[in-house]
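W.,

You were right to be curious about this one. When I first looked at the sequence I had no strong expectations either way, so I just let the prediction run and decided to look at it fresh. Below is the sequence, 110 residues in total, followed by the output.
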Amino acid sequence: AFQSVVVIGDKAVPYLILALEEKECQVKIRAVSILCQLREKKIPATLTAIPALIKLLLDADRCAQNKAVEALVKFAPDDLPLLAKALSDEVFAPAHNIIRPLLKRLQKEK
């Protein structure tokens, strides 16, 4: 199934982002995993998932939150400016306390 998503590439990303809003945690976790794998393949549209991943930090399910953190770590080394811009949106204010220390650490490592 993953190979099919890779072939589809950029066109699959909006659907994966929508899957991050599903109620079922396993659906969200699988969508995050696929987004990470697509990001590793440098599929440009994956960058549009950063706001949705930050929003996932606010999810009621701790497993989904943890998966979002893992994804942002994978996305961030190449995309720190984009991550910082996404964090500036007030909609994500509750996630700031979770992600700000991560962002600072990544900036120091760079």
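Here's what jumped out at me. The two ends are 34 Å apart (CA to CA). And, maybe more interesting for your project: The chain has six helices and no strands.

Coffee later to discuss?

I.
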